[in-house]
């Protein structure tokens, strides 16, 4: 399996950071997911071999972290927090709003493959609740209108 | 290690520094409950059952992950702790199906026991339980997910203990599940350790599930009859139409050298005993066809024929082939029967290792053999040849765990990339057939290293390895049958230059070592005494023919030329195992005693149905030379042990059996009269006598009478009888053995069994066959892609 040169450079450096190869697994999985879109069987087999792990061990780790996925997601993964701070500040409403707007549920993906939606636990944005995370970008102090704008922004980016 | 003093429940106790609190408590009889903690596996801290109060610590602490420290004050029993344990159980039971009345583990379930001891019979949970259908992960492993309490013992024993890593944990929190390595099934060594170690009934055995309840079986701890490692296996036995049926194999008492370990054969492959092809009555060839007959008829015929041939042609016209699966007592008796009753030295067996050369090399060297226990504690190990993972699973377990727990260096030299290279400090691959040069090199011949040099290992590397090995203390040197004859002597010569070195010679079958020790050779008497010399046996046995007899190839030649008039085969299938033309013995009178109509038995004139190792008593000597008790699990109607058959043939020949078996010397015996309803059942009789330390030897069929003689006469077998009877392994020694003999290397024929095959027994085990088929099916799927 072939990864980009950027991945290879990052990977080569990453493995030098830890005393055991296994420790580089989570960051490597994140890089691979960003590049491939999801952690396919092929990716799992490749990384297991590189880090001297069994495929089962790699799958165990992937299944533990909700940020890692074995199935393809939309280009923009909208993660709405409904943990305590966000909940009391209207996080659930934001989630419902997104569901209606995008026409998909938790872990769903729009037919055009642009968005997918996820209800997540605390993302550390409590001070600016309710908060959502789209891929690696944070959007805070959300209201339904603000959320619409955020989604619009991404859709426009995609159209260009 | 320095001792640490601490207080537990007001009691002052001491424990070596570094001891886990849970172990320190256990050592003084204070029980701290736990599910996930398991000795010799990595710490998990998952089940939270072992919570205790430690002074100056804010919250309850897990005793299984806390190391004792000086002045620690611990409480293991308070209202707070009781409540904590109860809550943990309530949580575990929240999704547990409570199907105990049908669960395999019911009656021997740790969760049941804990609930009984610590409460939580009532639950505050009102939610519906999550149901999942049970899954079959392999022919022998089933998983019932709702019963799982996520202690991760199975994951750890499979990975750390077995180095298989077939099980893992997926997802997180309440949705965590134990997952097999191939999505819906496991691809593994099928050892079943995960089932044995499961504290509940989540992992169950394909061989045993839903068959019976633990309390309906009699549990007999005996020695496994498959490979040469001699694991203790506990057979769960139930009454059946035939007299008895084995329904389960496991190692529930864990008192054997194998501890927690048992492989697929010991755990599931007892079912050969109940195979539908099992011979249940004697067969006599009448008009060219094997026809059912009575024991009396069959024994009389064998006695008459053997007698006639002895009188007419002399004993040298008869050949005797012994077994590697009969007990020491039977092998000794057969050896004696051949010499004394038949008057022949034409005795041989299926040889799988050069024990005579090994005995000769170790002569006069006390303490030079390693026991199975030594392999686990040895400070360093050198492994030459063999593939223990496949052929000696317990030995491989001992090696792996020694490396893992004690950090012992393993030096492995093999012509194949064996799996144990993963544990090896140094693994060196050599060309097949260069093992002899390796032994020469080890013993000092630097020129021999030329044959060993490869692109990955230079001559200097070999020299460095040899120097390194010489600096090791108490090195255990294990070698396979690749080394024979002079090569064994050379290796032992090398061992002399390593301080405290001990050896193990690997033979293939359950009693290969015993068969050799008991003199199933044409030129050796028990204890490796040459037939031509003089020994205790010459004096005691009286009539020992003075010249060496025929080995198996010799018997074949004699069969072809017609000078061999009779062949007596005991528990062996030379026609198939050694690829012999089945017609060479057409003109001889052939008697075979075996469990099945083997290739050899089909051409016999008389076939006698023999009991197997699970149906008789005696002793086995494992490949390390550890003597262990074979206990009768039960009797099957119509069958007789080889011991009884041999004695009765001698009797039928008109021989005074007192001269064969020293019985009838006891002065007191209870023959069942005090036991009312249970009298007359031979299996219970043996158990009863043993429990009371009685050995009356009132019967000519009592193997203990021959064990007396073995212990008295066979060098190295004078071990503690009490320890032996108590079920412990007793290491025998070769230091006082006879001079041995130099045999042709080609007489040794390795079985080359793997984890799923087992000589002639394996093909009669449905469990082993089903595993082989499922593995083959998977491979062909892959091939088709």
Describe this structure in words.
The complex is a heterodimer of chains A (160) and B (785). Chain A is of the alpha+beta class and 160 residues long. Chain A has two domains: 5-64; 76-159, Glutaredoxin (3-Layer(aba) Sandwich). In chain A, 47% of the residues lie in helices and 11% in strands. A four-stranded mixed β-sheet of chain A has the order 2-1-3-4, with helices on one face. The longest helix of chain A is centred in the C-terminal third of the chain and has 16 residues, at 144-159. The mean pLDDT of chain A is 94. With 785 residues, chain B is an alpha/beta fold. Chain B folds into four domains: 3-77, Ubiquitin-like (UB roll); 88-205, Alpha-Beta Plaits, CATH 3.30.70; 283-351 and 512-659 and 678-746, Rossmann fold (3-Layer(aba) Sandwich), CATH 3.40.50.740; 356-505, Dimethylsulfoxide Reductase, domain 2. Chain B has 26 helices and 30 strands. In chain B, the strands form eight sheets. Chain B has a seven-stranded mixed β-sheet. In chain B, strands 2-1-5-3-4 form a five-stranded mixed β-sheet, with helices on one face. Chain B has a five-stranded parallel β-sheet with strand order 20-19-18-21-22, with no helix packed on it. In chain B, strand 16 (318-321), helix 8 and strand 17 (347-348) form a beta-alpha-beta unit. The A-B interface holds A 54-57, 59-60, 63-64 and B 165-172, 179-181.
């Amino acid at each position: 399996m072939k990864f980009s040169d950027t991945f290879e450079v990052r990977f080569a450096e990453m493995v030098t950071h830890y005393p055991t190869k296994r420790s580089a697994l989570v960051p490597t999985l994140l890089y691979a997911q960003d590049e491939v879109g999801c952690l396919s069987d092929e990716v799992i087999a490749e990384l297991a071999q590189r880090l001297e792990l069994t495929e089962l061990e790699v799958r165990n780790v992937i299944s533990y972290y909700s940020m890692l996925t074995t199935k393809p997601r939309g280009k923009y993964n909208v993660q709405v927090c409904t943990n305590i701070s966000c909940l009391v500040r209207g996080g659930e409403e934001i989630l419902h709003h997104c569901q209606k707007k995008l026409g998909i549920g938790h872990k769903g993906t729009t037919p055009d493959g642009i968005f997918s939606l996820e209800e997540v636990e605390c993302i550390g944005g409590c001070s600016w609740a309710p908060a959502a995370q789209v891929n690696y970008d944070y959007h805070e102090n959300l209201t339904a209108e603000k959320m619409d704008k955020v989604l619009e922004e991404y859709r426009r980016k995609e159209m260009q | 290690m320095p001792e640490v003093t601490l207080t537990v429940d007001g009691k002052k106790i001491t424990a070596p520094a570094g001891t886990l609190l849970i172990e320190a408590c256990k050592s003084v009889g204070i029980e701290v409950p736990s599910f996930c903690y398991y000795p010799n596996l990595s710490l998990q801290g998952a089940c939270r059952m072992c919570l205790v109060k430690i002074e100056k610590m804010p919250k309850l602490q897990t005793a299984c992950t806390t190391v004792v420290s000086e002045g620690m004050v611990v409480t293991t029993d308070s209202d707070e702790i009781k409540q904590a344990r109860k809550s943990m159980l309530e949580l575990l039971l929240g999704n547990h199906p409570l199907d105990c009345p049908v669960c395999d583990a019911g009656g021997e379930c740790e969760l049941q026991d804990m609930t009984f001891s610590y409460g939580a019979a009532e639950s505050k949970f009102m939610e519906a339980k999550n149901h999942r259908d049970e899954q079959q992960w392999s022919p022998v492993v089933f998983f019932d997910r709702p019963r799982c309490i996520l202690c991760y013992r199975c994951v750890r024993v499979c990975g750390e203990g077995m180095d298989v890593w077939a099980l893992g944990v997926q997802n997180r929190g309440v949705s965590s599940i134990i997952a097999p390595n191939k999505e819906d099934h496991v691809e593994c060594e099928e050892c079943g350790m995960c089932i044995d170690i499961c504290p509940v009934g989540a992992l169950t055995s394909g061989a045993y599930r839903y068959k019976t309840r633990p309390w309906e079986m009699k549990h007999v701890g005996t020695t496994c009859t498959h490979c040469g490692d001699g694991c203790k296996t506990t057979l769960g036995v139930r009454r059946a139409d035939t007299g008895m049926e084995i329904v389960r194999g496991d190692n529930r008492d864990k008192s054997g050298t194998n501890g927690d370990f048992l492989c697929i054969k010991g755990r599931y492959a007892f079912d050969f005993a109940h195979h539908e092809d099992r011979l249940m009555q004697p067969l006599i060839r009448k008009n060219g066809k094997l026809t059912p007959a009575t024991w009396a008829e069959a024994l009389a015929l064998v006695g008459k024929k053997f007698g006639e041939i002895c009188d007419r042609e002399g004993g040298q016209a008869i050949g005797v082939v012994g077994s590697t699966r009969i007990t020491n007592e039977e092998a000794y008796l057969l050896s004696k029967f051949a010499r004394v009753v038949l008057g022949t030295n034409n005795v041989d067996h299926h040889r799988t290792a050069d024990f005579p050369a090994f005995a000769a090399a170790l002569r006069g060297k006390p303490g030079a053999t390693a026991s199975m226990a030594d392999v686990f504690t040895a400070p360093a190990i050198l492994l030459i040849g063999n593939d223990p993972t496949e052929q000696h699973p317990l030995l491989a377990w001992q090696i792996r765990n020694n490396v893992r727990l004690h950090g012992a260096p393993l030096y492995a030299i093999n012509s194949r990339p064996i799996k144990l290279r993963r544990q090896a400090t140094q693994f060196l691959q050599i060309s097949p057939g260069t093992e002899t040069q390796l032994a020469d090199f080890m013993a000092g011949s630097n020129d021999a290293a030329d044959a060993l040099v490869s692109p990955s290992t230079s001559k200097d590397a070999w020299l460095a390895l040899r120097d390194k090995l010489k600096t090791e203390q108490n090195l255990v040197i294990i070698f396979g049958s690749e080394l024979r004859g002079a090569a064994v002597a050379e290796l032992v010569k090398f061992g002399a230059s390593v301080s405290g070195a001990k050896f193990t010679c690997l033979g293939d079958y359950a009693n290969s070592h015993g068969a050799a020790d008991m003199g199933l050779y044409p030129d050796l008497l028990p204890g490796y005494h040459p037939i031509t010399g003089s020994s205790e046996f010459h004096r005691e046995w009286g009539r020992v023919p003075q010249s060496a007899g025929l080995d198996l190839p010799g018997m074949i030649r004699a069969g072809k030329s017609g000078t061999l008039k009779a062949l007596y085969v005991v528990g062996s299938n030379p026609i198939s195992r050694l690829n012999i033309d089945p017609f060479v013995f057409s003109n001889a009178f052939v008697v075979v005693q075996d469990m099945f109509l083997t290739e050899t038995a089909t051409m016999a004139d008389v076939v006698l149905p023999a009991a197997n190792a699970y149906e008789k008593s005696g002793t086995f000597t494992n490949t390390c030379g550890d003597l262990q008790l074979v206990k009768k699990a039960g009797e099957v109607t119509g069958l007789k042990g080889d011991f009884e058959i041999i004695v009765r043939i001698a009797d039928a020949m008109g021989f005074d059996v007192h001269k064969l078996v020293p019985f009838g010397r006891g002065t007191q015996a209870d023959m069942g009269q005090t036991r009312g309803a249970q009298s007359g059942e031979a299996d219970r009789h043996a158990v009863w006598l043993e429990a009371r330390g009685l050995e009356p030897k009132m019967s000519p069929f009592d193997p203990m009478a021959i064990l007396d003689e073995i212990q008295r006469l066979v060098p190295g077998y004078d071990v503690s009888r009490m320890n032996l009877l108590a079920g412990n392994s007793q290491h025998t020694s070769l230091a006082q053995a006879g001079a041995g003999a130099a045999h042709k290397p080609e007489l040794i024929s390795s079985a080359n069994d793997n984890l799923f095959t087992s000589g002639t027994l394996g093909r009669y085990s449905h469990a082993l066959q089903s595993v082989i088929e499922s593995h083959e099916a998977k491979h062909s799927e892959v091939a088709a892609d």
